[in-house]
Structures are given as C-alpha cells and as structure tokens.
Automatic annotation (TrEMBL), chain A:
Belongs to the binding-protein-dependent transport system permease family. LivHM subfamily. It is found in: Cell membrane. It comes from Nocardioides potassii. Its main location: membrane. Pfam families: BPD_transp_2. Keywords: Amino-acid transport, Cell membrane, Membrane, Transmembrane, Transmembrane helix, Transport. This is Branched-chain amino acid ABC transporter permease. It is a multi-pass membrane protein. The chain crosses the membrane at residues 6-26, 33-52, 58-78, 90-109, 138-160, 190-210, 222-248, 260-277. The lineage of its organism: Bacteria, Bacillati, Actinomycetota, Actinomycetes, Propionibacteriales.
Automatic annotation (TrEMBL), chain B:
Keywords: Amino-acid transport, ATP-binding, Nucleotide-binding, Transport. Belongs to the ABC transporter superfamily. InterPro entries: AAA+_ATPase, ABC_transporter-like_ATP-bd, BCAA_Transport_ATP-bd_LivF, P-loop_NTPase. One of its GO terms (molecular function) is ATP binding. Pfam families: ABC_tran (PF00005). PROSITE patterns: ABC_TRANSPORTER_2. The keyword Metal-binding does not apply. CDD domains: ABC_TM1139_LivF_branched. This is ABC transporter ATP-binding protein. Residues 4-233 form the ABC transporter domain. It comes from Nocardioides potassii.
UniProtKB/TrEMBL annotation, chain C:
It comes from Nocardioides potassii. The keyword Metal-binding does not apply. The chain crosses the membrane at residues 20-39, 51-75, 87-113, 172-191, 222-243, 255-282, 294-318. Keywords: Cell membrane, Membrane, Transmembrane, Transmembrane helix. Its main location: membrane. The keyword Transcription does not apply. It is a multi-pass membrane protein. It is found in: Cell membrane. PANTHER family: ABC TRANSPORTER ATP-BINDING PROTEIN, HIGH-AFFINITY BRANCHED-CHAIN AMINO ACID TRANSPORT SYSTEM PERMEASE. This is Branched-chain amino acid ABC transporter permease. InterPro entries: ABC_transp_permease (IPR001851), LivM-like (IPR043428). It comes from the Bacteria.
Amino acid sequence: MTWVNAVVQGLLLGGQYALLACGLSLVFGVMRIVNLAHGALAVTAAYLTLWLSQRTSLPLVVCLVASVLVFAGVGYLLQRGLLNRALRGGELAPLLVTFGLAVIVVNLLQEIATANSRSISIGGLATSSTRIVDGLSIGVFSLLTLVVAVALIGLIQLFLSRTAVGRAMRATSDDPGAARLMGIDDRHMYGLATAIAVGSVAAAGAFLGMSTQFTPGYGDLVLIFAFEAVIIGGLGSLWGTLLGGLVLGVAQTVGAQVEPAYGILFGHVVFLAVLALKPSGLMPRTVTA
Amino acid sequence: MPLLELDGVDAAYGELRALWGLDLRVEEGETLAVVGANGAGKSTLLKTIAGVMHPTAGRVRFDGRDVADVADHRRVALGISLVPEGRRIFRSLTVQENLQVGAYSRRPGPWDLAAVFDAFPLLADRRNRIGAHLSGGEQQATAIGRALMANPRLLLLDEVSLGLAPVVVGDIYRALPTIAAKGTTVLVVEQDLGQALSVADRLQCLLEGRTVLEAPAVELTREQVAAAYFGLEEAP
Amino acid sequence: MSAAKEAPHAVVRRGGRSSVAGAAVMVAAVVVLAVWVPYNVSLGGLTQLVGLFSLIILATTWNLLAGYGGLVSIGQQAFIGAGGYGVIYLADAVGLPLVIALLLAAVVAGLLAFVTSFLVFRLVGGYFAIGTWVLAEGFKLLTTQVDALGGGSGLSLQAFSGTDRVTRIATVYWLGLALAVIVVVATYVLMRSPVGLGLTAIRDDVKAASSLGVHVRRWQRFVYVAASAGAGLAGALIAVNALRVSPDSIYSVNYSAFMIFIVVIGGLGTIEGPIIGAVVFFVLQQQLSSYGTWYLVALGALAVVVVLFAPTGVWGLLTRGRLEMFPLGHRVEVDRPAAAGGGRAGRRSATRA
C-alpha cells in the first residue's frame, strides 16, 4: 500500500507541476521563447498573494485572483515592452533578457522580503484529507490544486481552439507575417499569450506558497520542474504538459519512497531517460509549424 | 475617384531599388492585371499597397485617403486584403479555421464560410483537414478564401498560378469572375499572360520597376504584351 | 566593390597598427600583473585578483560556447563543480602534484561534457539552456550522495598544509594568471584556425553554415567540450583559491549569471569583450559589495539594456568594430604597398561580420 500511496501522492504533486508548467508550454508554443524568468515570476506572485492576504482583510481567494490579474497585466507589458524587442534580436536575445530578469527579480525579492522562508496560511485546509483506505488518504488542498491545473489547461485549450482570438494566436504562431495580413497584430497576440502564461504562473505560485515554504531562490527549482514537465510531456502540447507534470510528480514521490534523499534526483533521472529514449516527449505535437 | 491610386511610388530593398516612380490606378469594380517578368517589381507593388513595405517616395491613396501611416494589419479593416506569394496558409490550422482567421477583422459583406465553400467547392470536402496536409491547389484556394473572408473592397492576388498544375490554375481562375461579380475590385499579379488576359479588364505591364504598357485588355494582343514583357520594343 | 577596380593594389590583411598597439597594451598589462602587482598588493587583494582570473576564464569559455557556438548554457556550473571537486580529490586523495591535479580536473570536466553532450544536445535553444541546468543540478545531487566527496558539507584542500601563507597565495596567484593568459591565447589561436572560421560561420547563420558543409553538430560538440574543460579549470582554480568546495556554492547557478552578464556587457562574440566585461564586473562587485546583492540587480539590468539596445556590448560601443586587439578578421585595404600585408594576408578573403 505504501507504493500505491506514493503513486497517488505523486499524481497530486504532479498537478502542482502541471499548473506551474502550462504557462511555459504556452509561451513556447506561441513564440518559441523559453522564459527563464518563469520560476522567479511564480515566486514573486506567491509573495504578492501573501502580502495582500496579510495587509488586507480580503478573503484569500480574492487575493489570489487579484495577484493573477496583476501578473497577467505585468506579463502583457513585459512582452510588449521588452520581449517583443528581444524577439527581433535573434535566438539568443530572449534567453539573455529573461535570464537577466530572473536574476533581477530574485535579488530584489532577497533585498525586499529577505531570504527567510515564508508560507501562505490556508488554515485547516492545509491538513484536511480524505481517507480512502488504510494507508492511503488524499489531501484536500493537493486535490484542489490538481483540479485547478486540469481545469486551467482545459480552459486554455478551449480558448485556443474555439475562440477567434485563440485561433488568431495559433495562426500568429504558425506565421506572424501572414497573420498580419489577416488584420492580426502579432505583437498584441504575443502580449496576450504572455499575459495568460504569467497569469497562470501567478496562480501556480500562489498555490505553491499555500502548500509549502518558499524563499526568493525557490524560483530556480520551479523553473526546472516546470521545464522537466514540458519536455517529458512533449513540446507544444498542453495536455502533454499535464501528463509530464504527473509523471514527474510520481517519479519524485516514488524516488523518495525508495530513499528520502532521492526524490528530486529520481525526477531528474526520469527526465534524462525520456530525453535519451523518446526526445520528442510522451505526447508530441503532431504538426510542426 | 479611383479606389486605389499610386503616384510616383519608389520602393527599395535596402540599396536595391525595385519600383521607380510608379503610377497606377484601379477603379472600383474593375479587375486589373499587372504582368511582368521575374524582378519586374510586381510583388513589391502588392507589398507596398498592403503596407508590408513602405514606399521611399510617392503616395498610395485608397478610397481617396493617403494610407502612408496605416500599418499593414490595419489596412485589412480599410478593405485591402493580400493573398501573398507562396500562399502562406496556417499549417497547423484546418481549412475552416484558416478561413475563420481570415474573418478576424469582422468586416461585414457577402463573404462567409458558405460563400467561400460555394466559390471553391473542393474546400468544402477538405474543411477539417489541416493546412500542412493540403495540396498546392487546395492551399491556394484556401489562401484566396481566407482573404475573401475579410470582405475586402480590394483583393490583391500575388502569382496565383505559381507552382500549380495548369488544370488547377484553371479551376482557381474560374472563381475570379464570381469574386468580381460580388463587387470586389481585384488586382492580380501574374507571370502567366494567358490567364491574366482572360480575367482582366485592364492590363499594366512592368519592366524593371517601371510601367511599359497599360491598356484595356480587349485592345491588346498577346504579341504586344509579350514584347513589352520582355522589353523588346518601346511601349506604344 | 568598385574601389577594387580603381585601385588594383588592394591588400588583404589582418589587424593593423591599432591591433599591434592593442597587443602591446595587453602584454604590458600581463607583465605588470606578473611582476609588479604581487609585490605591491596585499595578500587579500591577490586572492581577489585570482577571482578575477577565474572570471576571465569562465567568461572566455562561455563566450566560446554562446558567442561562437551559438549554444546558450546556463549549466556550466556542472563543470565548475566537477573541476573544483576534481582538483581537491586528485591532489589529496590520489596525491598528485597540484598543477597536474588542476589540469587533470579540467580534462575530467571535458570528458564529462563529452558524455553528457549526447543527452543535452537533443535539446535546442532555450530548452538546451535549461537542460544544461538540470544536468548541473543532477551533478550537485549526485555529489552530495558520495561520502568520499564529503557529502553535503564538501571537501577542504590539504595539499597546502605545511606551506606558509605567502608562498601559497603567491603560487595560486601566478598559477591563476598563467591559466587565464593561456585560456585567452588558446581561444584566440583556436578562432584564427580553420575551426574558428567554421565556428564564425555557425555563429552568423547556422543553416547557411550547414549547407556550406560545416559539420555544425560536430563543431558545437567540440566547443561544448572545450568550454566545459575551461569551466572545469576555472572551478579548480576557485577551489584552490578558496581552499575548499561545497556543493551549494560550487554548483551555484550564480556562476552562469556571472558568465552571461560579463560576456553580454563586454561584447558577445569577441575575444576582448569577456575580458573587458570581467573587469567591469569585478570592479562593480568590489565597489557595491557593501550593498548586498544590489550589484547583481544592477548588473542584470545593465545586461538586459545591453542586449536590447547595444547588442555589441561595451567593446563594440567603444571601438565600433574598428579596433581589434586580437584581430580575427581579414580586411581588404586599398592603395597600400603590398609588402606590408604579412605572411598570412591574402590567403583567404573572408571578412569578419
């Protein structure tokens, strides 16, 4: 039963990774940019949610939604202000700019919020769980995270396939020049894609901050886990990213079951194994634009 | 007032000049064919009208308005749609999605999915196939249908026949009268003289970025056009 | 060019008077660092300068990787760590002489890079970047699991026990200076060789290079191995200078931040850029050290601004491409006596972009 439990807990943990990763996956799918500031933004959102919940008397849900909206706006401005310009500078420029941003953000957090670890209090929700059978119970909050991850990915997929703006975003990803001939402003589309991505990573960061202790430097791990989920799942596929998150979560909890210190290492090993054996990932996108 | 009017337009790719003081007029409702050899400046002309390139001198007026400060993606809303060279359909989108993206600017008019499928029946069967899996002719039909979905007043067609089998080219050109009949003004750029003469009301021939011949299509013989096309004699 | 028609005495040459002067300045700087500085700077100052030398090695090799190989790695700390642990293990546990241990540690780092390249080279662009980082995290986690490497607390260097402090610091200082000079000169020689021409082609246009028959993947792998051996060398120098290594500091992603900022600010894809950038970085780090991590915020902001608005970096801004202390390109000069061209002139007519 301990192994079943490890797998179930891994799936729940995987929900968190999928939530963290879907923005990274979306931005890469639309713009072929890897946003190296992704993890730093997640942690910043956790700090903002924490700050709002401590400074205002608003319910936590409202604080979370507020920081998601703030970060969506930040994402749009970031894209229109810096990244669109970087996109014109070739392949290296977006990487260098987002890496620079990540370092700036982490060190600013370090200065402003100190390196002490924090967490966002969710009261009894943190410990409440449902017992399935002996030795196997499911935490309500981690189940909620998984549900939110699946719902968010489903919503983004629906947006991309069923709405005019979503179709325009996919068209821009295929050929920005041709999209402009259809009356689509590619820079605006990129802005919207990054707004969605950064908004989603803000939600992910807040959920992370409610489930675990975090520090300014925690964004490094976030970026790495999100990245592993994206690659394991297959580039350019959001459902693949969900699968990748689940696989990574299970690998880590099963690894930790073998030997507590091996959890994260097992995750890396699974990632490297996928890279060696099936480099296109488990659910690769069928059409490459 | 002509729908489109170019006055002394110069255009260049860096140091390389492609258009030299070009004048051009298109009246509402007519079909103008611009012909010329490779490098005559035909594609440059269309890109300049669509706003993808900016003239280094001269004026482009659409419906009496100077469009110099209108960005390419805003010209669609004015009613200018370009079917680009090489078709450039969205490869990961289905035929129907390609057409829907064409309607992004939401200009009202006679063209919708049903009208496009009517004009290009082969697309109706392929509506759920993605762009990457279409034949050249299907891609070209999709590209034209996609531009029509914006209900343009002026439709710019760049080298529709390029790289397609003659029978396919014939199919596509048969749809042009339907388009013109709905009141759309068409400016078609072609290397294929026969096709150009068959659909055009008027014909303008470019040689090295300058106009060498311009006349109503019925007054022209293939030989006259061919001579101007290759620069064999002075234009009449 | 029409100029060639009018002036038949066109000559292809490398560098010119300015680069002779530039080279003279560099040689003078090295001489001052070698014979004057050690006797006039405090021991603490010398230890800090060894830090500068390792930064120059790191930046030069990262520039080789990104600026010429087109490979942005943010995981070179994997090989810094391998070099750092390698030198202490080889010197203390195996008992090799320090210099041999140092060089061998670099070779080990290069070998590790060769083996792991078969994994990370499956990723391109930004995903290659994070892939290298995962590799570094993997190295760190593995290191903490090995008892012979001190687990989570790391290793201390014993080889210097019995040596007095002055001799030790002077030895490390000269060693560091020599290594930095060797790495820079070796990179320069490499870039002037046919290998360099192929790499420059890759930097300018990967697709065109591969269609011209440049074996892009092979050269990139070579560059990755060479740059990682250089990172290993720098890591070994850092460990010998600090007398100890610990997993959290030697495998820190901050090293990647340093390398990237230095190269970007100095000038990507030039030999001079990383040296200038390392000096700028070093000075800023010393000046702003009392303000906590603000120097990293300032450097990050500076790097972002440079990438977006001055992609040729400080060196490019200063010289506008006119001056090369390390001339790599070939320049066509018109109406000059042909004799001044030098032996290599005219053999190739490529002009560096």
